[in-house]
Amino acid sequence: MATMKEIARLAGVSRGTVDRVLNKRGSVSPETEKNIREIAKKLNYTPNVAGKNLAVRKKKLKFGFILFGSADSNSFFVDVVFGIKSRASELSDFGVTVEIREANIDAPEQQAKIIDELVEIGINGLAITPINHPVVAERLLRLSDSGIPVVTSNSDIPDCGRLAYVGSNYYKSGETAAGLMNLG
């Protein structure tokens, strides 16, 4: 079985360069990348799954999710919580844990407190349905500045340092609805 060390020796590069190419983790010149990929292909290189699993387990990743209200009182979130829990179960074998919290839709201070609690227990990332309020925006910006990635879902706070927003573009949806109403 071919190893990254062997590919590095044949390509005349460091093992770190091979790792960056094969795991798409950094910039490497196009010529070097092509050469490494060709050597890996010739040697029938396949990643060491056991090694990757061990590396992930060592990290002990912990993710936080903050959703509006209770899944019992908001049927939209029933499927969301089910999906989070099913993936969390699959990832638990890799040392990944998931913390799910709920906040009232009209309680920004409560949501900010939950963010603080999740940071205190050591989350490595946060997905949140945020309340668009300055206190929540400030906490999310602080998280982002400290290197903890934040993804907002279903509602958004622009300029809060989030990595991504997943959800509808309500402005575009409104434009589409107005355009359709104008057709009639």
Features:
5-stranded parallel beta sheet, 434 Repressor (Amino-terminal Domain), 2 domains, Rossmann fold, 184 residues, 5 strands, alpha/beta
Distance from N terminus to C terminus (CA atoms, Å) equals: 66 Å
| Biggest sheet layout | 5 strands, parallel
Under CATH at level 1, the class of the largest domain stands as Alpha Beta
Going by CATH, the homologous superfamily of the largest domain would be: Response regulator
Strand line-up in the sheet with most strands = 2-1-3-4-5
Low-confidence runs of at least 5 consecutive residues:
none
Radius of gyration: 22 Å
Q: Which fold name is given in CATH as the topology of the largest domain?
A: Rossmann fold
Give the tally of structural domains: 2
Number of strands: 5
Shape: extended
Helix content: 40-55%
Tell me the structural class: alpha/beta
Which CATH-level-2 architecture of the largest domain? 3-Layer(aba) Sandwich
Number of helices: 8
Mean pLDDT across all residues, rounded?
A: 86
Beta-strand proportion:
5-15%
Explain what this protein looks like in three dimensions.
The protein is of the alpha/beta class and 184 residues long. It has two domains: 4-47, lambda repressor-like DNA-binding domains (434 Repressor (Amino-terminal Domain)); 56-170, 3-Layer(aba) Sandwich (Rossmann fold), CATH 3.40.50.2300. The chain is built from eight helices and five strands, in the order ααααβαβαβαββα. It has a five-stranded parallel sheet, with helices on both faces. Strand 3, helix 7 (134-145) and strand 4 (150-153) form a beta-alpha-beta unit. The longest helix has 16 residues, at 76-91. The protein is extended. The termini are far apart. The mean pLDDT is 86.
